[in-house]
Amino acid sequence: MDEHRIERRPYGDRAWPPPEAEGLPPSARLYGAPAPPSRVRVPPWLRRALVFALALAAGVALVAGSVAFVVSLLHAPGPQVDVADPAAGVSYPLPQGWRRGTVPPVTGFTSVATAGGSALVMTRPGDSVAVSGPRAATLDLADLYGRLLLHGDTVDVVDDRPITVGGYSGHSRALRASYTDVVNQPSYLRVTLLTKDDRSVVVLGLAQPDDPARRAEIDAVVRGLR
């Protein structure tokens, strides 16, 4: 009778893979399940340095935000300023950046507003135009103030038209003066004569150097007159 030799299995009754390895990848079955990472301890001095850095960054951001807010306030457009001229019986708004003046530089004018040293607007009571009419009177005034203020080597008429603003009607003429020297830049002069009932008002705008933006601002003052 043959005897069968029964060899003992090296693992005895242990099942393979072990139950705790179920669901793990093959590498984990060989080397074991990955252990959770150990908690990294941050040295106290490093923790204090991180807190200080975060506080410093927050402070810098706060200061930068405050500076930006102040700068935005400085550059924000201010309230519109009006100039009142009781002697001429009119008032007019000023464009941004313009300021009321105190003493008009030309005799007879009773109000003045300036834009730095590059432009101005003045008003004064006008004379009766019942005989000559507003256009003829405006041409005479433009010739007078052109010779008084421009002193140009050449003076050209760049605009001449009737105008109606704020219940007034009248005429407006604009001149441009050029100079042969290399120092003086072209100048711009607008003279407007407005009448209502039995009174009139003269509005004079001057810009040196001549500039489209300054022309537009002077025209805006004339259109806003009331």
What do you see in this structure?
30% of the residues lie in helices and 28% in strands. It is α+β, with helices and mostly antiparallel strands. It folds into two domains: 39-76; 82-223, Protein Transport Mog1p, Chain A (3-Layer(aba) Sandwich), CATH 3.40.1000. The strands form two sheets. A seven-stranded antiparallel β-sheet has the order 3-4-5-9-8-7-6, with helices on both faces. Strands 1-2 form a two-stranded antiparallel sheet.
**What's the architecture of the largest domain in CATH terms?**
3-Layer(aba) Sandwich
**What is the mean pLDDT?**
80
Oligomerization category of the chains in this entry: single chain
| Total DSSP helices | 4
Intertermini distance: 137 Å
What's the helix-strand series? HHEEEEEHEEEEH
Counting helices, strands and paired strands, the structural category is alpha+beta
Percent helix, as a range, is: 25-40%
Biggest sheet statistics: 7 strands, antiparallel
Uncertain stretches of 5 or more adjacent residues: 8-12, 27-31, 66-77
CATH class of the largest domain: Alpha Beta
Radius of gyration: 43 Å
Q: How many distinct folded domains?
A: 2
Give a quick precis of the structure.
The protein is an alpha+beta fold.
Ordered list of secondary-structure elements with their pairings:
Layout: H1 26-31, H2 44-75, E1 82-85, E2 90-93, E3 99-100, E4 111-115, E5 119-125, H3 134-150, E6 154-165, E7 168-178, E8 187-196, E9 199-207, H4 212-223
Antiparallel strand pairs: 1-2, 3-4, 4-5, 5-9, 6-7, 7-8, 8-9
Index terms:
elongated; 2 domains; 226 residues; seven-stranded antiparallel β-sheet; Protein Transport Mog1p, Chain A; 4 helices
